[in-house]
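Anyone else keep sequences and structure tokens together like this?

Example one:
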Amino acid sequence: MPAALLFAADAGGALHVVAAVGTWGGDAVALRALAETLGGAGVDVLDVTGAIEGARFAAGARLGDSEGVLLVLAPEDRVPDDAWTEAFATSAQLALGLVRSVPSRLDPGRLLHEVAVHPGTFEDRLDLALQRAAETLGLDGAAFAHVEGDEWAPHTVYDPSGALVPVRPIPLTDTFCAVTVRSDGPFAVEDGASTPLGVDTPVAYLGAPVFVGGRCVGTFCLMGRAARPKPFSDDDRALVESLARWVGSSLHGYATARSLADREADLAAFFDGAPMGMGVTRLLDGDLLFVRVNAVAARALGSTPDAIAGRRASELGLGGRLGRDLARRWLEASHAALAEGTPQAFDADVETDRGVRTLAATVSPIVDAEGDARCAFVVEDVSRRRRQTEHPTDAEGPVEALLALAPLALFATDSKGRLLLSRGRALDLLGLDAEASTGRSIRDVFPDVPGAAAGITAALAGGDASWTAEVGGRALEVRVLARAGRDGRPRGLVGVALDVTDRARTPRDGTGGVTEARRELLKHLDREIRSPLTSILGYADLIGADATPDDLREVRGVIERAGDRLMAALDELALLGGDAVVAQPTPTDVCDVVTRVAEESRPAAEARRIAMNVWCTLPEAPLLVDVALFEKLVRHLVSGAVAAAAGPRVAVEVRARGPEACEFAVTGGVPTDALGLREGYVPRLAEALGGAAHRIDGVRPGWALHLPRQAVPVVEIPEPWSADGTPGEAPTMAFVDPAA
């Protein structure tokens, strides 16, 4: 508050300033005239905007029976809310004690003042209040107790004898406080022996309820071991009520402070752990001061939070040789945001240890009561998004389909083993994320895998290596080889992690080794995967900012051809090199399988903003189908359709084709080449189910599977009772021809 003045009334009722703190824009005479305009009981709030410099309103209250006035001037940015009014009412009680004089014992006003200005903690002030109040009223003990439900629990006790006040929780009904908590003001008992309340001790009692936020939480009470010769006076009651109000206001203040501290901690935790780069800057004269940044923002700027917070942008040199452009754009955006009061966005290229990156930032003004020119910002690394915009493709090619569908992961590192690229479906098993893994050491991915550390070291020196890693219950075969630069020297690694769990679990021959056919297949796949994979990663490394259109066309052609070879090799791996696929039909609800598998792919469809519709118009009857083989086929086609769809909608349908066939179809502009139809994987599975796969042409192209509609034989059991209710012939079973 700018100012607070306490007026006392003389015998004639005139007001005189007896205490004042702070400064004000008028003289004491003008303020005394303002105080004299106050009404009766309660708190009056007067608007003094423009009349008194620096003040928005004046609040005042008459004390006692015209004994004085407490007047407070509030600053321009203060609002007289309920919490403020409650605090003012408590201050008025303290002020009343200061202007009153009680002869023959300690002045209660001085007691309240002594408690309020004590330099100790709240507990220290509470101890002092209990002791001074007991001494002032000539009683033997005092206590502040919590009341919760039916229990009276002492919080702070003053009891020199150690025998008057309980120090442990007791039933509330055993205390005079049971009446106090139901009262709005003080409750007094001068001679407890003559009351019908049934409380043995104490004999004398004076207490007042303690309210926090309008709810009674306890009592402030004084006790004596002997009856009082005369009743407690109004001054005695006012003293205890004022102290109870002070305790309630203090507890409310501490609760509010704890709530604000918890809220601040929650906001800080969100800020520090947010998945987007966030921070706060302050605008200086021609410079920016980073007040606070989180880890994501610091990483995007190529530094750490501790190295940035509290530093000027000009001191940090953020962005390397491109940092000047970043600082200029950031400063311009901050000035515009503060001047216009709206968020401002900008892009800038910066140099980091991962090369030149593009940052997109949004700066928003902050309303600061202290008058500081502050802005909040959100920053994001959009390098990959920009590359995709500058080099768009009509549809996902074979490599993209391979990485979306095949159980492998591709990766490349720099000369220090830090990841530059990580793509593929097997990344989840390795605990990697395509975006967040950039810059992470490949050694951290395989910390305890035998042979991994030595293999990585050998490959970084120009060799190659391989090992098998057990991750998440799956077996991954990892192969790495040196990535050479244009000068022929090693510049890092290229590698592939292939999920070989199913291969590792295949049956072995009688000698304990893999059959010769499988061994030859693995050698063939090793050659067929390694050669095109090297071409993909090698040519992808040549794509840079200075690549010409002719270079890009050449690289794309090589990558597409290599991707075709990889897809064919993986199809061979999935079919186990020519082993026969034998179906084992069982009664199956085909529609249930299709619906369940389609729902598994719905989140992926929604992520690509693709609508997926599922229909099933087959009669409600089970069919004889190898459920495991059929589910595998449906999952491959539906998930592949979602990954490779070129249109905004994918339709999945199961329908009857006459009495002997059914059709499973997916339409909506779905290309077939990337889904195994061309290389024989899907047709091979369809053939094992007794059907065939073919394309669907027209406005909504796609593909379909024709499968035999083999009904489940029905068993009839004749009723063993005759029409008149007597036992009939023994039941017989007969198979009914489904065609009949």
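And example two:
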Amino acid sequence: MIEIDQIDIKYFRSIYRLQLKGLRDVVVLAGVNDIGKSNVLKALNLFFNSEAGWREPLRFDRDFSRRRLQEVRKETIKGKQFIQVAIRFVRGKRFEKSLPERFTVTRTWHRYSTEAVTTSSLTRQHKRGEVATSIDRAQAGLQRFLDSIRFEYIPAIKDSDFFTYMLGRLQDLLIAKNAEESAVVAAVDQLNTTLQREAAGLQSEFEAAVGVPTSVRLPEKIDQLFRAFTVATRKGDEDFPLSVRGDGIRSRFLPSLLYHISKHSKRHYIWGFEEPENSIEHRLCTALAREMVTTYSKEAQVLVTSHSPAFFGLRDRNVCVYRVLHDTEGTCAICVHPEAAASAGTHTNLLNVEMGLMELQEEQQRQYEQVAEELEAARRATETVLDMLQTTTSPVLLVEGKLDAAILQEAWRRLFSPAAQPYRIIPCGDDVQGGADTLKSSLETVRPDQPLTVGLFDHDKQGYEHGFSQLNRAFAELPHGATRVKTNGAAAAVVLQAPRGREDFATHKTLTIEFMFADRYLLAPKDGRKVRLAPLAITQVIEATGERIRRGDATEPHLVSLCKEDKGWFAYTVVPSLPTEAFQPFGAIFDLIQNAFDEAKKRREAASPTLA
């Protein structure tokens, strides 16, 4: 999507000389306040739109570099007072017959001139044989190329006037797009006919009174008709104009609006976006940064100034990140990604310090993104489980993982065969880690019109403390403490209960389904191999700092877990080979599960007899 790969600015505001090169689809300018980041975007706005800011005309006495002014006064050479912006464009697949692959356009504003002087590199490139056509044709192609580009400058402070302007841009796009074929045009013509008919009496009366004929009509130009163009947003059951929503909602609407305009316009867009994170919470800011990289940059080259690690922490291939700072001349910029310069690492560290422990912020940002990805994976897993519930009418037992399901299926077969299994067993997790989080969220979202559902949690730290005990308030705990049932009877949850000899496992939250088997079965060799038990680590928390220090491995027999590598082998190979008496502790678990189904069914019947 790239349009610009190099920018050179001279003598504009805080910029004495500044060069950005090797630009990519997304360009991030990061640095402290009042360093001149926005002046880069304003210089581009001056180049494309002849404005030093949004609706802010160039004022040479204000916008000319103070440092350069001092030099000029010393030299007493008036002709050296100018502002200059040079842009090297990448042609892309347009104008291949008239323009070289890369070329530079320079615009210069002199102190006593009202118009910019525009020059280009085409003449030099033509002499070097880099232009495959005549210079006149190349110049004509250049003008068409520049006319095809639209630069949108979005200031840091986005007031009501700016939102009105942007909605006007959307309006112009919607109306101008295939206007001659638009249903809007036909509808306006029909409405005009209706107005003429309804107002016929008024028109006749007025003409009879003063002798002047009248005609009640809508504006002839459709764009005039829609000057009251608004956007309504939904909140609950009510509609609210975007103009009355909070700054965060309005600010987040802007990039979506720009993307829509860029995608459907015949022109090629470049965005100059100041501080897109303003008024947006971190979650939306992170999502916006990813959208700019993965989606928006396909329709527009995006240049942003930012203080947020969601943006200056980006390290994608189509992104470049600059540290903007002051040197002895004025605003300058150092590329920190990609790390082309040997000093890039140093400048990254300096940027960390400038932005206030930015390194920590970037680490927190990565952790946030990791947690967000995990939550998204859990959400998808929950949707999969709920989809499964839709495909059956029989009761369902949800368990944390596939290995739990395999062991329970075998236990049922051994204890109750040939009796029919009264419920389906569905796992919530795909790996040996299980899916306590998915199990919890699945139970909380089961509806009364879905099959009766019971969830079985392991009695370990993840299953009990983060799953079973954290079920929302809709789940009421039964007196014995091992079962929770949803008030409407849609679902229930039970937690593994320790068999005789394993009580310490439950007390210390280390009881997983494998420890339902006695040691003589759990640790019995098979084919020269047996499961390995890994001791849990003993850690100490330093109260003053919250730091965790490892003190060694536990020696107590109940502070162990099965090695992850052995879990699958035990469930699929060892368990089916065990004698039937090894499964006796599961009888109490199946009784607990059945009682939970019975209690849920009773509450469902009480809450909604028609669903019973």
